[in-house]
Structure formats: C-alpha cells, structure tokens
Write a structure and sequence with these properties.
The complex is a heterodimer of chains A (307) and B (232).
Chain A: H1 7-12, H2 37-47, E1 56-61, H3 65-76, E2 81-85, H4 92-105, H5 113-133, H6 139-148, H7 156-164, E3 176-181, H8 189-195, E4 199-203, H9 204-211, H10 217-224, H11 233-246, E5 251-257, H12 266-272, E6 277-282, H13 290-305
Parallel strand pairs in A: 1-2, 3-4, 3-5, 5-6
Chain B: E1 2-6, E2 10-17, E3 20-27, H1 31-34, E4 43-46, E5 57-58, H2 61-72, E6 78-82, E7 87-91, E8 96-100, H3 108-117, H4 124-129, H5 143-155, H6 160-178, E9 184-188, H7 195-204, E10 208-210, H8 218-231
Parallel strand pairs in B: 1-4, 4-5, 6-9, 9-10
Antiparallel strand pairs in B: 1-2, 2-3, 6-7, 7-8
Classes of the chains: A alpha/beta (307), B alpha/beta (232).
The complex binds iron/sulfur cluster (SF4).
Iron/sulfur cluster is lined by residues 36, 38-39, 63-64, 66-67, 182, 257, 260, 262 of chain A.
C-alpha cells in the first residue's frame, strides 16, 4: 500500500498489508527519475523487486498524483495493482463502492472478525497518543507506534507486543509542538526536536491512522469518509484547529516534501492558524540535516521568547 | 563580553565598551584572530559555526538578528538578512521566519556568479550598477540560468553595467517574494553593502527600508544583546 488504505479490510480479506513508505526514511537510494522521493523510491524498489509484495494498492484519488503515476510504473513491471480513490466530497456511498472493489481485488472478505479486532487495537493506539500528550511517553516512541498503524505491522500480535513494550517516562513538555503535513522523511526528527527543546504532542497524519475504523465495509466507509487528507482544506483545517486547541499546542511544524502539492497549502495554513508556524521542506531520506536543525533550534528560541 | 558571529564567509566580533560598540571583521577561517586572549567564558557565539567555536552561550543567527536589529531600530517589522549562502526573512511582528538555502537565487552566492563572470570584485557591482542607462529584463531567478540569460542580454547589445543592474533587479525580485507586507524593513548582512542591489530592492519592495551603518555585524551585536537581556 502506498498510503492509508483501511487496513482492516485488507486483513479481513486474508491479506497481509505492508506500507511501502516504511522503508523510505532509512533508505540510502538515490532514484533515477524523481519528483517526490517517497513515491520515487518505493516505485523503483518495487520495480526492481527489492520489496517483496504480491500486489500493490495505490492510493490515488484524494491523495497523491505522484503515486498515481509511480504506481502505474509498478503496474507496468507486472505487479498486480489496484487504484484506490477517496471521495473529495466525503460521499460514503462512493467510498463504500471503492472498498467493495478493493475487496474484490483481494478476493473478498473472509475474516470479518478482523474489523473488530483492529478497532480494539486502535483504542490502544489512542491511549499511546494520549499518554504522549501528557508527557508519559516520548514523542519518538509514540510516533513509531502510531505510524505503524497504517499497516499494523502486517501482524496484529506483533503490533500489540510493540505497544505493550513502550516504556513510560516522565517528559517535561515546555514547548508543545504539532507536526502537521505529510510525515517527515527524516528518520530521527522527533528525537532531534526533543533535544532542541521541542516536544511533538501531535502527529497529524499518524493520528488519522488510529482515528478511523469500522465493523464492516459499510461502517468503515462511513468513518473513513472523515479522513482529513483526502478532503477539502476547510474540512481538514477545521479538524486541525480543534485538535491543536485540545492539545494546547505552542507551535506548529509544517513538514512539506519537495515536489509535493501539499507545499501549496503552507500559505493557507499560515493564514488559518494563529500560532507560530515553522515550515520545513525535506527531499531525500536520512537523518535530520543541519539546516533543518538550525530552523528547529531557532523556532524553539522564538517560542521560548513568547510571553 | 564579546559577541562572535562566525558565518559561512566572514567572522565578526562585537564589543560594547563604555556604551560604545566596537567591531572587527575577518574571513571565516581567521576567526581565531578575533578572540586572541579572550576567555571562552567571555564569548557569546552565533552563526554557522556557533557551536564549533569557544563560547559560554550560543544563539542561532535568527534570534541574534532580532536582538541586534532591535538595538538599532526598535520598531522594525521585518528583517532581511542576506548572507553569503542563504537569505533569512524574519517577520518580527508575527514571530515567523523563512530561510532560503536551497538555491543560490537571492543569496550572496548569486551575485558572486555575476562578479566571477565579469572577473570583478563583489564590491564593484554596486558602483557599476549606478552607471546603467537602461535595465534589461532578466527573468530567471535560478543563478545558473540567469547567467546564461545575462549573456544573451550582452549579445543583444546591453552594456556590462546594464546587465549587472538587470541582475540586481532579478535578485531583488527573488528576495521580494520572500518578504511579507510590512511598514518597516531592515536589511542586514554583507550583501547589503551593494548599493545597486539595495536601490533595486527599494524600488521593488513597498515599505520603508532601513540599513544599519554596519549591516554585517548586527548578528554579533545581537548575540551579545541576547545574552545581556538573559542576565538582566
Ligand atoms: S509527500 Fe506528497 S508527493 Fe510525496 S507521496 Fe506524499 S502526498 Fe505524494
């Protein structure tokens, strides 16, 4: 899968989901033809059979046009590929028909109990999110768990074990930060931010991963209609504002990716939010580069000066 | 105490002695000359190399710029710091900043391309600009493409002075995209000494533009001020 596809349906069809983005932040690859490094790297790795999958689900509609094209490159290499579209207007019937056709691609629902099982796991995910908001779990640990919810590690037991082994700590939250936009391509940005005195208490997209669920295709369609990234900006920002207030956020880091259309949202977002915003643009994966560290440090100094 | 700013191309030191500001400037790699006989505990550092030089405390260039500019112009809304390798725009009123360090357009390095092409010293560009009679349109803001566009304008018959002026306008336009609407802007950084570039900026950017007498040492001064307010 190339982005958020309801993993409960994939499991229910007896398949094992794998989010191809998971391998990117640690990747050392420099793709030959690239716009966004995320899609370029997974596409090249899939074509070269460096990631083992049987078939690919590309989230195209309501998400990413780079994925739409890079996904077709993978399809041309012979891997069975399905294109999944979210409705921009949130129409539940449309989403239900998309889920039905995905289910058809995966051979139909065989284990309906998976829906509820995953629902329960997502409740544990919400607990993790809550604890990090209260400084009881480190932002990096929380992020690692939440981001895993896109494919639930392909193994529900494995994820449950990972959740139960998260270490509780006491973290001082002096600069509460929301990290919004697409997930950063840097593998250690939560740690780096924390070292520089910024504690991430909200990860926008990973929060979407734990927020939606359902008991069957019908209810899943109704819930995933609220997936903010696929919807108009007003819908997404309306949701964001409430979340930022609830989490008493002091500043926002807007992560954008080179050659990604989400960059265009920066201006509107700055107009909409009335807290300090730092925009970071990443390109290639790896550790957080020095130029980004400088921005984070200056942002920390800036927030620290606020009355 | 001294404020020490070791940036990508130059190093500056500022001292305040009996209320009077004194400063020294040298090349980045000669920074040691600026602190001969000065104890580490006496140094507040800023700039690219702020963490690799001896210091009691260090602060980012962004915060240093805010404190340094505030000393000269307490009412500044926006600070534009045009350095050798990047340009920073700080919106003091909104507590926001942007840094352009991805491409040379709008940084000192862009003007270095121009100077190199004509085999000139960077300082000469400003004087030559003032002799231009017409200003050719140069649209590219990418440093590399702008140089080829500049060559086409030379072929088209514009003089060296005019093409340099055209490049300053292209540069200023690029900077203006980063600058929010503001009543008062303060320009700092070494590049600001280029009069041609500044006159292009004054024409393109709305709002009152102010330039401190010594725009290059503002961050070193700011580092010092930042520390002083911390202990006050
Ligand atoms: S960062 Fe943007 S372009 Fe890249 S995969 Fe995500 S949505 Fe697509």
């Amino acid at each position: 899968m190339t982005a958020l596809v309801p993993p409960e349906l994939v499991f229910a069809c007896g398949a094992e989901p794998f989010d191809v983005n998971n391998v990117i932040p640690e990747s050392k690859r420099y793709p030959k033809s690239k716009l966004c490094a995320w899609t370029a790297i997974w596409s090249e790795m899939l074509v070269n059979k460096e990631i083992e999958i049987d078939s690919l689900i590309v989230v195209a509609g309501g998400d990413c046009h780079n994925a739409l094209v890079d996904g077709q490159k993978v399809q041309r290499s012979g891997i069975p590929t399905h294109f999944f579209f979210y409705p921009f207007d949130g129409n539940p019937e449309y989403l239900e028909s998309q889920l039905e056709s995905l289910s058809g691609f995966l051979g139909g629902v065989r284990y309906p109990g998976k829906f509820r099982e995953i629902s329960k796991l997502k409740k544990l995910g919400k607990k993790i999110d809550e604890k990090r908001c209260n400084g009881r779990i480190s932002p990096a640990d929380a992020f690692r768990i939440l981001i895993s919810f896109s494919d639930l590690c392909g193994d529900l037991n494995k994820l449950e074990t990972a959740i139960s082994s998260v270490r509780e700590q006491k973290i001082e939250l002096n600069n509460r930060i929301a990290l919004i936009g697409v997930p950063p391509i840097y593998s250690d940005i939560h740690e780096v931010a924390q070292e520089l005195g910024l504690q991430v208490v909200f990860d926008e997209l990973p929060f979407e991963f734990i927020r939606h669920s359902g008991n069957d295709i019908h209810s899943t369609a109704r819930d995933y209609c609220g997936y903010t990234f696929a919807r108009p900006l007003d819908f997404r920002f309306g949701f964001l504002k409430k979340e930022l207030e609830k989490r008493k956020v002091d500043g926002v880091i807007h992560y954008t990716q080179f050659a990604c259309h989400h960059m265009l949202e920066d201006e509107i977002l700055r107009d909409e939010l009335d807290c300090p915003v730092l925009t970071i643009q990443g390109d290639m994966p790896g550790k957080t580069p020095e130029q980004v560290k400088l921005r984070l440090e200056a942002f920390g100094e800036m927030i620290g000066r606020q009355p | 105490m001294i404020g020490l700013d070791v940036g990508s191309t130059t190093a500056k030191a500022v001292r305040i002695v009996n209320g009077e500001i004194t400063y020294e400037i040298t090349g980045t790699h000669n920074w040691k000359d600026l602190i001969k006989g000065v104890d580490k505990e006496e140094i507040i550092s800023t700039g690219y190399f702020r963490k690799s030089v001896p210091h009691k405390a260090n602060v980012t260039e962004i915060t240093a710029a805010i404190y340094g500019v505030r000393h000269c112009y307490p009412d500044a809304d926006v600070i534009v710091d045009i350095g050798g390798q990047d340009t920073k725009v700080i919106d003091v009123t909104k507590n926001n900043f942007t840094i352009n360090d991805k491409c040379s357009a709008g940084t000192g390095a862009f003007l270095e391309f121009v100077a190199n092409y004509f085999k000139l010293e960077l300082e000469e560009l400003g004087t030559l600009h003032l002799k231009a009679k017409a200003i050719p349109e140069i649209n590219n803001t990418c440093g590399v493409f702008a140089v080829s566009e500049m060559i086409s304008q030379l072929v088209a018959g514009y003089s060296k002075e005019e093409v340099i002026a055209g490049m300053h306008y292209a540069f200023a336009r690029r900077i203006s995209f980063m600058v929010p609407e503001a009543e008062t802007l303060v320009l700092i950084g070494g590049t600001v000494k280029n009069k041609g570039m500044v006159s292009a900026l004054r024409e393109i950017i709305r709002g009152k533009i102010m330039i401190p007498d010594e725009p290059q040492v503002i961050n070193a001064l700011g580092a010092l001020k930042y520390y002083n307010q911390d202990i006050e």
